[in-house]
Amino acid sequence: AKVNGRKQTQFYDASMSRDLARKREIEAELRAAILKDELSIFFQPIVDLKTGRIRTFEALVRWFHPEKGELRPDEFIPVAEDSGLIVTLGNWITAQAAKAAAQWPEEVTLAVNLSPLQIKAPGASLGVLNALREAQLPPERLELEVTESLFLDDSEATELFINELAAKGVRFAMDDFGTGYSSLGYINKYPFSKIKVDRSFVSGPDVSKKTEAIIRAVAEMGAQLDMDIVAEGLEKIEQVKAVREAGCTLGQGYYFSRAVPDYLAAMLLAQERES
Ligand code: C2E
Ligand code: CA
Ligand code: CA
Ligand code: CA
């Protein structure tokens, strides 16, 4: 058995060395990709379920590789985390996204995903504040999405990061809620303004009675605590109706729109304001 850098112990086999080779390759190319402009930020709308208007765009990174085609973040973010590149990459993403957001109407906010490793790196809050300053985006218009895994070790670095940025007006969203271990303690401890109910709760042929009861309970908590509850992964009108009925305030998913390039995001906003 071999310890693979982080937590788990795995048995070594041929498929692992292939995975490792691909990882190494991606790692080397990723460093160059940032400089070569192969990465770009796409934006997916998060919609007010009452009015149908766009309240937020979530920044989602894309890598258009000259040979491998479009690579999904699920494939290269973990590589960036393993190699430490995530700090540079993460700061670049926040800076690019903030520049785009500075062009939107001021009531539209920007959501950016942050890796736990990025948050725990020294000077992490500076990276965010620099991006805001350079883009001249007010901190209130930025929302940072973090997952439950950030709290696996509830470190001092995490606490400092969240408290420092929250004091400046930056907002926080708990992403993929319901997939990890219980995070109610962290919702109690930290100033989250939004909970994103994981896509797994609405996927499947329809929203079951059981799932609906869970979403309803989370939505009720959200209402009590003055937090927005977002349903992720909405693909069908039935799902939109079910989550709205269950009390979710915001929705996101292919039913409304996929993630789109910045110029299309700007067009969607312009269209809304004409009608
Ligand atoms: P996430 O933060 O949970 O983002 C939502 C993912 O679900 C996105 O995949 C989005 O394209 C996809 N999605 C949205 N609506 C639907 C839908 O209706 N149906 C289905 N099947 N999928 C939907 P994407 O862009 O491939 O990103 C995957 C994950 O990679 C993200 O999950 C996030 O954890 C991570 N990620 C993406 N961009 C960044 C980034 O800039 N920084 C960091 N640290 N992580 C990122
Ligand atoms: Ca997210
Ligand atoms: Ca999510
Ligand atoms: Ca996710």
TrEMBL record:
Where is the EAL domain positioned along the sequence?
Answer: 23-273
Query: What top-level branch of life does the organism fall under?
Result: Bacteria
Coiled-coil regions listed in the entry: none
In Swiss-Prot or TrEMBL terms, this protein is called Sensory box/GGDEF family protein
